[in-house]
Design a protein that fits this description.
Blueprint (H helix, E strand, L loop, with lengths): L4 H5 L17 H14 L8 H10 L10 H23 L18 H33 L4 H19 L6 H11 L6 H17 L6 H13 L23 H8 L2
């Protein structure tokens, strides 16, 4: 299916249609989507608008439960966008011969269903990442870290998380003390006692539980107390300094710029 780049960019919707959605799904998930579509489709092989919500919920994805009014409105916008673009494609003869996507009754084909599901999941993931990003920015301001520092600390956090996943210890404190020397941070016996106080205090004070922000707090407290001679060296803490980086903060800033 062909569509000009100019027309795609001209969409007023934040999320342009996914024109080749099959590439975004594993074979197993693609089979699940196809089977679900067939279970809710009419005898003519189309899906009515009334069956769209139940069909999407049946896919089993948490994001697809459409429990909030915001989710339902978002889905409605995506459906309108897909149908509008497909109608334009049909008018211009862009549809491959023999493939139906939308008729005068706004019936949905399996390809339409796949596009709608792909776009909704993508939008949902972007929204979730934005919420996580805003929480991180709030924590970075609290602990006085700049953008590049947050990016570097996330690399350390990934090492720590991997260490825990490999069974270093279920105890956060024990695992953190094993993590430090792996990053070249040496601590004395007296500093170990102070680190224990930092970690235990963070769990007493934190109502939301363990998170990346908790980890940032540990490093800030260590830095402020001079534990392990921990230093943060940053040349450019602006958003321009993130150019070329592929970390979480850099990606989110580019995604919503």
């Amino acid at each position: 299916e062909i569509h000009s780049e100019k027309e795609r960019e001209g969409s007023s919707h934040s999320y342009a249609p996914v024109w080749y959605p099959k590439a975004l799904w594993s074979d197993t998930d693609l089979q699940t989507v196809t089977q679900t579509f067939k279970a809710f489709a009419t005898t003519k092989g189309d899906l009515t608008a009334a069956n769209l919500f139940p069909a999407l919920r049946s896919l089993g994805f948490q994001q697809m439960q459409l429990a909030t009014l915001e989710d339902q409105r978002s889905l409605s916008d995506i459906v309108k966008l897909v149908l509008t673009y497909k109608a334009k494609a049909q008018d211009r003869g862009f549809e491959q011969k023999g493939r139906r996507s939308v008729n005068s009754d706004n019936m949905l084909s399996c390809q339409d269903f796949l596009r709608i599901a792909s776009m909704f999941l993508r939008q949902s993931d972007q929204s979730s990442r934005l919420v996580e990003f805003e929480a991180e920015m709030k924590a970075s301001a609290q602990f006085r870290f700049g953008l590049l520092e947050v990016e570097d600390i996330r690399c350390l956090f990934d090492i720590f998380t991997e260490l825990r996943a490999k069974g270093a210890s279920d105890d956060f404190l024990v695992c953190f003390l094993k993590f430090l020397p792996r990053c070249g941070i040496k601590v004395t016996d007296n500093e170990v006692v102070r680190i224990k106080e930092i970690v235990l205090k963070s769990f007493r004070d934190c109502e939301a539980g363990w998170s990346f922000a908790t980890f940032m707090g540990w490093l800030r407290s260590m830095h402020d107390q001079g534990i392990g001679d921990l230093k943060f060296v940053v040349n450019d803490n602006s958003s321009q300094g993130l150019q070329g980086r592929t970390g979480f903060v850099a990606v989110i800033l580019r995604e919503h710029s």
